[in-house]
Sequence to fold (936 residues):
Amino acid sequence: MGVAHALPTRAPLPPAFVESLRGLFCERLHLSEAVRRQHGASETHFEVQLPDAVVYPHSTEEVVALVKLCAAHTVPLVPFGAGTSIEGNTIPVRGGVTVDLSEMNRIVAVNPDDFDCTVEAGVRREQLNEHLRDKGLFFPIDPGANATIGGMASTRASGTNAVRYGTMREAILSLRVVTPDGRDIRTARRARKSAAGYDLTRLMIGAEGTLGIITEVTLRLHGIPEDISSAVCSFETLAGAVDTVVQSIQLGVPLARVEILDDVQMRAVNRHSKLDYPERTTLFFEFHGSPNSVADQVAVVSALAADNGGGDFQYSNLPEQRSKLWKARHEAFYAAVALRKGAQGWPTDVCVPIGRLADCINETKRDLDTASFPAPILGHVGDGNFHVIFVIDPNNPAEQKEAEALNARLVERALAMDGTCTGEHGIGIGKQDWLVRELGEDGVAMMRAIKRAIDPKNLFNPGKIFAD
Amino acid sequence: MGVAHALPTRAPLPPAFVESLRGLFCERLHLSEAVRRQHGASETHFEVQLPDAVVYPHSTEEVVALVKLCAAHTVPLVPFGAGTSIEGNTIPVRGGVTVDLSEMNRIVAVNPDDFDCTVEAGVRREQLNEHLRDKGLFFPIDPGANATIGGMASTRASGTNAVRYGTMREAILSLRVVTPDGRDIRTARRARKSAAGYDLTRLMIGAEGTLGIITEVTLRLHGIPEDISSAVCSFETLAGAVDTVVQSIQLGVPLARVEILDDVQMRAVNRHSKLDYPERTTLFFEFHGSPNSVADQVAVVSALAADNGGGDFQYSNLPEQRSKLWKARHEAFYAAVALRKGAQGWPTDVCVPIGRLADCINETKRDLDTASFPAPILGHVGDGNFHVIFVIDPNNPAEQKEAEALNARLVERALAMDGTCTGEHGIGIGKQDWLVRELGEDGVAMMRAIKRAIDPKNLFNPGKIFAD
Fold:
């Protein structure tokens, strides 16, 4: 199973290095196969590859010491958060030390008057939002998984709220980063905007740990809206659903979330979450604002939905209805995988200009018609980003091959529409060839030049984004 | 007059180089002192320094040929748009060729269904908005000056709409860039979001032409709101004005613009634009949305203003009222300079976390009390960004020195509040020492490493952001 990545046989870690590592981390150094395996696997179809060691730092200073030690012994380092990435981003393909940041999970500061907070990289998004709730603030980025903030920064994550609140690119004000030469830098101050030199913050966001290890993140926060309401509406056609969203955006409706689920995905959701929605193309909405503003948004969107062949527009401002809806959406991936016993999910991730989205999904659905496994579709329709989930038998190489071919055609289709091979999952080891197709050898050459300049020994998550 | 930047005596351009340049650009090569002077001056207090030649390319291909020629002869290049930058960003401190992109002013494509467009770097923002108007779309970033889009990208410009629509960082989807080794790259596709490798787009935004010459920009657009209304309100105290804005943001009011002008600035505006506003701290507002939503926003904000010591909340949905208001705001810099005959304006540019803004402005006003020249304040209060305009006599070195000292204390104050030395003007030659204070030697070292990797000969706008 899995994509083969032939690797040179690796030498074991030098004993002197291991001793120094133990000196730094004591019982927080793990060499057991169980812990290493947990850090060498991923949630998707990639081959498991074990790190040689796993450490759990408790401070930026410990990360600095670790980086210096690894540099002295030429040992690779792979930062690790919650392990929920999709493209094999944390698999240690060159071995070395996995730096599990999950115990760096302190909320360092919340500044309600400034609408920001600073957290250690291992803080998870649900933990942060629980902490913020009684301050009337929330952190909007929601990729589904309860990922760490550091991991979300490293893959430039986004998810269901991005249409209104942006992605991690917009959510982060500043990062604390340990660089490959062991410096501890802050990429920016806490001002909302700055024109102070190169945008090191954005350079680190989405770099997948190849340019630095993020240890602290300063985030923009938002006031919890006075009213939060949700709605569900199914459509006769996919184009009708997409047009409803495009026209809403054209009219300036500040949709907080709008998710599309196709008929196959709705069947999976109904089964898994014991619901009885119509099994047709469906939009899930969330509206944020004052009660007047939300009422206004709902009036505009429900009228547009009716014009575009939408059925019953089921609106609710009851928190329990909303929770039920979004719980179903959050479980959609697992619902898809549950369509088939013993199956594994392989989520694709293209994003296209929004005017091409209906075409892209429709052409993809035609291509999926003959697939020998279920392949539901769900997406962040306001951003032009959608996922096909290939529900494949992990022990059947033919299905793996078929999924690869379907994914290849999907990415080709998105690139032909001037879209991207990855809206929010990153490149990892799964999309490296596509990155070159997307930006050309010259674009990737500039990335490589930056990598060589900042990590000349190629020790920070080597083999990711581009091959060594 | 002006900040002294002692430079080595430069050799004249090699005759063979000039001949090749003439071969490439014919009558679009300028060697006259008049044209060179126009490209060596700036709108502010920096010493004029002339380029050796000025060329006006008409295509990316011509820029590629130019870059290769300059590389072969080790001649510096300085990209130039409308020349409206503030920190000496386009002054050719090492001489060489100024690349005036103003004749690359084609609107390449508008994609209304995708809410985006692609323009050449020399297109000006007013030209673009005129072109877009009948398509129901607009480009929101408004730094005041009618700058070029390429120049706005290069300084990470923002302005009055940033509180709602973000800065150039958020507005740009993709760039076409000629790199120092003469490659013609696109930094991204047109998808709304992407997680495809390093964020080359954001790296080029704000790089002030030191890493590449931007020749095309793909921009996010927005639907023209159904209703646009404006309001003016003066306040008893500065804190009252700032609190009104902070509380509005807390309640999620999607303010489209909110500008603060202090008593001195209001006096200047009244005189210059023949208006009769109260000469107290004043907020200028703009609201975008459906008529219901705008009415709702106005109700919330006017109530908050009243609670915070605001006077008469003068609301209007008449376009001519709105135009009058924003014309006055756009002319505020010139109104300030006009306070004093023969004076020059020196605009500062700090940005602080919004909870610190009232303190920062108040402390600054106390510091300005004893200034020997007028120093009005205006700012983008929703972002925590404000400008003091030192209205100084350009022939009086003592005033120049006094302004420098006031600016130094202002930046110190902003940095102590975890703010930035520049919210939107960039570093240029004016803020290089402050950049080091803001991010530390280690942060700037990473910028230098990137610069060396991408422009090893240091030919692209040398001497900007950091000293050679």
User: Anything to note?
Assistant: The two ends of chain A are 24 Å apart (CA to CA). The first helix of chain A runs from residue 15 to 25. Chain A touches chain B through 99 residues (CB under 8 Å). The mean pLDDT of chain A is 95.
